[in-house]
Write a sequence for this structure.
């Protein structure tokens, strides 16, 4: 009976593969593009990702910082502080959603960077790289 149902509706594995296939296609497209860039350009992709993430949530981060600054002032009444911290909590939840959104946008590129890096390490006996600050 179970075999009949899985043939009719597909297995969980089949559904997962179907769901992830567009992501795999994107990763492979970026992977083929990254094969021609230098080691330094590949390394700088990480900085680019950090910048994109920071810019994507910057408006919310600025708003959260501004409200925190107001809430931490000594002259701010206690009941007002409570309202401000509730607003911060709300904004942080919104920020988390935006963060998840931008990370999903970056995911195929980031995975392709890791894949290309692994390919380079596996195909070269030595790789000379320059250390960079985070």
């Amino acid at each position: 009976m179970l075999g009949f149902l899985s043939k009719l509706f597909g297995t969980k594995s089949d559904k997962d593969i179907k769901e992830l296939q567009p992501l795999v296609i994107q990763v492979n497209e970026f992977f083929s593009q990254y094969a021609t860039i230098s080691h330094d350009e590949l390394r700088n992709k990480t900085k680019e990702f950090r910048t994109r993430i920071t810019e994507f949530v910057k408006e919310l981060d600025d708003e959260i910082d501004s409200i925190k600054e107001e809430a931490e002032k000594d002259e701010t009444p206690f009941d007002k502080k409570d309202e401000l911290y509730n607003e911060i909590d709300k904004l942080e939840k919104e920020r988390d959603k935006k963060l998840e959104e931008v990370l999903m946008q970056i995911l195929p590129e980031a995975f392709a960077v890791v894949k290309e890096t692994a390919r380079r390490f596996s195909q070269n006996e030595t790789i000379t790289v320059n250390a960079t600050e985070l």
Observations:
- The chain is about 80% helix and 0% strand.
- The first helix runs from residue 2 to 9.
- The mean pLDDT is 89.
